[in-house]
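Interim report, section 4.2 (structural modelling).
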Amino acid sequence: MKNAKWFWATLIVLLAVALLFTGCGPQSGDGGESGDGGGSTASVVKLGFFAPITGGDSAEGTAARNAFLMAIAAANASGEYPYTIETIVIDDQGTDSVAVAGANQVVADPAVVAASGFWNSGPAAAASAVFKEAEIPLLIWGAIRDDLTNAGNYPYITRSAPTASQENSASAAVVLDDLGYTDWFIVSDAGDYGQGNLEVFTQELSKRGLTPLGSEVVQEDATDFSAVVAKIKNSGAKAVYCGSTVEIASLLKLQLYQAGVTDILFAGISGMKTPDFLKIGAEAAEGALVVSPGVDLDSTDAGRAFTEAYNLAGYSEPIGAYTPYAYEAALILLNALSACGDAPTAEAMVDAIKDSETTGIFGTTTFDEIGQTTNVATYLNVVQDGKWINYLNSEYADGTRSFGGQ
Amino acid sequence: MVPMGYLLDLIGSAVLLGCTYTLVAIGFSLFFGVMDVVVFCCGDIAIFGAFSILASYTILNGLGVTGTWPLLLVILLLLLIGILFCAVLGLLTHRFSIKPFEKSSALMPLLSTIALGTVIREVIGLMFMPVTNGVADMVAGENAVHVVSGRNPQSFPSLLSLGGSTAARNIIIVLVTVVILLLLFLFLNKTKTGLAMQAISQNKELSLMTGINVSRSIVITFVIGGVVLAISGFLVGSYQTIMSFDNGSMFGIKGFSAAVVGGLRNTWGAVLGGMLLAFVEVMVSGYVPNGSAYASILAFVVVVIFIVFKPEGIIGEKTVEKV
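Predicted structure of the assembly:
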């Protein structure tokens, strides 16, 4: 029995250390003096931030957290705010229930005046109800399911990232209209993200009078797609649309390549556009075409400045497709805080956010009548020789190389 | 009419997937057979082995070993390192997660190994990058090759894809699985230690009375389990090519299910269970429209059916307890 006690003590210490390092549970980010947590004071204003910091989506979530805290730290250092801005970072683990628990914790803190969050649509939808009920504004930076912003949630829920429809529409214009692919096989995951993409891409096909030759919904933790690959091979499809994140997309592309299914276009959505996709090897990844939100960071001064600042900060997680959006979300909240004077409240922040006009990396963001950003920008990337390249600058665009299935 | 080639593709896929489930299931069977406890972190131990091999490969890569030494020697060296790590982890699992609960209900080691699995996953996610890069810098200096965060998907070296051929890799995976099964069979049935382990599995008290060193046998079981799981991790990594730190939980659940379906105490049952689950998953995915969404569900329905109607598994023996 003594051994058992010793074991559990060791295990609890190990878990506590792991949780401390991984950011499970709340963390106070951004430096500055710690608030007393017992009520709103003139010296501390708190923001909530949600991202999947552990689990399969942790690379994207951690990079987003880094960018958000980077903007808040710069704001605190600037001396422009007569109070210290603290961030309560919640690791939502990409899970609805964890997100709701975190949201309840954030809204219970009287010093919190606004929050930003969510890479996954499911947790975003679940937590939105909590914020709406508490009448605390939530600005979504990464979840793209269309219905997250709607008249019922307005003005409490706003979103600075494009929706799944907006992303897929840009992608469809190229792969369906410009490149002219008609024989599609759709693969998506069973999560909210995958289902949202499946729905809108099918709609894009339908608008053009097309029906997919086949579609498969795979589990989010699936790693073996050999049966799906066999189905794709057997369907005669000339193009595959993958509406999922990098873990599934990279394995599917790799397993297609290994099965010799190379004469086929592999197109996808922003969730797969990370450096991790390239780990399957240059040959296997070649020709993957993906839409990304925003504008190419290398193409603007603001983008290059953000990349430089992020890299200088020494974060180990590379910039993902939505990392700049998390940074922009922080800028929007900071802009709204400035508009609220010396003693911002959640009530004042609701109006300040919906009426805000913030110039960031991707231009000027304002919100429409349901809280969706009006600053919609997307661009296409393609893998060429083991690197993600802006499609317009690639050899695929100038005709030197061609996609499979053409 | 679905072409025959399509069916053959699916059968090949199912066999390979079955091999990955089987090796993890053997770990469950081995531990349960001797200790009468479910060591739920088997999948995580296997993935820990794969990450150990990946870290070692990265470090050796910086030293230029992987490009100059014969491939077979590199593979053996990496396997040896993976086996060492997994065997030590197996022993630590026994020492801290099983032994303290020897006199407790079977639920306690089950819970403690589930918790340990979480710790293993988080340790991989947290420590893979700093430890690998730190050691690489120390031994290879400027030539060191670095990895990215352990939470990102990692690319496993394609050491078995001889000349870039996945067919060769697939054949090796099946052959190695068969060889491991045969060696394990010979060890358990033809050696004194193996027979002692089987005796403990049948009656621990009687084994003690007949002079079998139970403690030693248990330690050997965890070392052998570690060896099997390390090789399993290596084969899973080679098959998937891309690995995540949290893959262990999925492999653990599938491996456990395979072991239950086959018969928890029986190594051959683990093979049958692993293959049955894999065939159900692949055939449902392959022949049912949009079947991938239901493949895992149906595989687990099979598990539930076995638990209800044949709890001893396909080739497990019914146990009768006299009251």
